[in-house]
Structure formats: C-alpha cells, structure tokens
Amino acid sequence: MPDLSHGDDAAAVNSLRSAVMRLSRRLKHQRVDESLSPTEMSVLGTLARCGHATPGELARKEHVQPPSMTRIVALLEAKGLVRLEPHPEDRRQKVVTQTETAEAMLEESRRKRNAWLAGLAVHLDEDEWARLRAAAPVLEKLAHL
C-alpha cells in the first residue's frame, strides 16, 4: 500500500497521475467521431463491455448523476448509437443497448487509438516495453476500482 508520507511513494503516485492524465488527453485527440463527447464515448465503451444496462446502472458505472445519464442516453439514441428496450423484469425501467453503428464506430476508434499508441511504443526499448506489458493489467485494475 502506498505511503504518501514516504517520498518515493508520493513521487511515484504523482508521476503516475501526471503520466496517465497526459496520455489520456492525447488519446482523446485520436477520436474517430468528433461529434461525440468523451462522456458519450465512455458510455458506449461501457455498453460494449457489459452488453446492456439500465440508465441507472450506467450512471453508477460512469460516476454521473442519473438525470445526466438520462440526457446522455437520449443524445446517443437520437444519434442512432443506442436503443432503449423494455426491461425484461421491471416495466418501469428501460435497458440501453448499443447499435451496430456504435459497435463499428467503437471498433474504428479502438483501431485508431491502438495504432497511435503502438506508434509511441516503438520508441521504447525491450526492457521498457516488457515493464509496460507487465503494468497493463495493474493499470486496468486501477481504472475499474
């Protein structure tokens, strides 16, 4: 467990935060569809991972308020990227599912961003690349805590 009163741990946390934020900003510029906000793209990515969800579940997963998620889902539906279907067990709720258009757009976005990131990785030596490959699952875990 990191001890932020310890100089090395505090420096590592600071360095990690800075690097992740900078890389994230640069990755956001590698978008396929500029008409979608980063939040809308994130919601589509969540749907790609989980298959479908209620707006309330999406709000929790995206760390936004339910009324905000309702607006985001309405925008995505108007753009033909999600569809709302009746909940199989609770008629008061709807289930949000991404459309084939969204799936294709996300795939193209992943391809473009992966290619950009791979282009950066060619500047790493073999030891740095091995350490980055080993760190990827840990970063993935942090991203989903």
Task: Summarize the helix and strand pattern as letters.
Answer: HHEHHEEHH
Number of strands: 3
Helix content: 55-70%
Please tell me what the overall shape is: globular
**What integer is the average pLDDT?**
90
Main β sheet profile: 3 strands, antiparallel
Task: Please give the count of helices.
Answer: 6
Q: Approximately what portion of the residues adopt beta-strand conformation? A: 5-15%
Oligomeric assembly:
single chain
Residue ranges: pLDDT <50 for 5 or more in a row?
Answer: none
Order of strands, widest sheet:
1-3-2
Q: What is the gyration radius calculated from CA atoms? A: 18 Å
Q: Span between N and C termini?
A: 15 Å
**Structure class:** mainly alpha
Model description:
By secondary structure, this protein is mainly α. Helices cover 66% and strands 8% of the residues. Strands 1-3-2 form a three-stranded antiparallel β-sheet. A hairpin with a 7-residue loop joins strand 2 and strand 3. Helix 3 packs across helix 4. The model has no long low-confidence stretch (mean pLDDT 90).
Topology readout:
Elements: H1 7-28, H2 38-50, E1 52-53, H3 55-62, H4 66-78, E2 82-86, E3 94-98, H5 100-121, H6 126-143
Antiparallel strand pairs: 1-3, 2-3
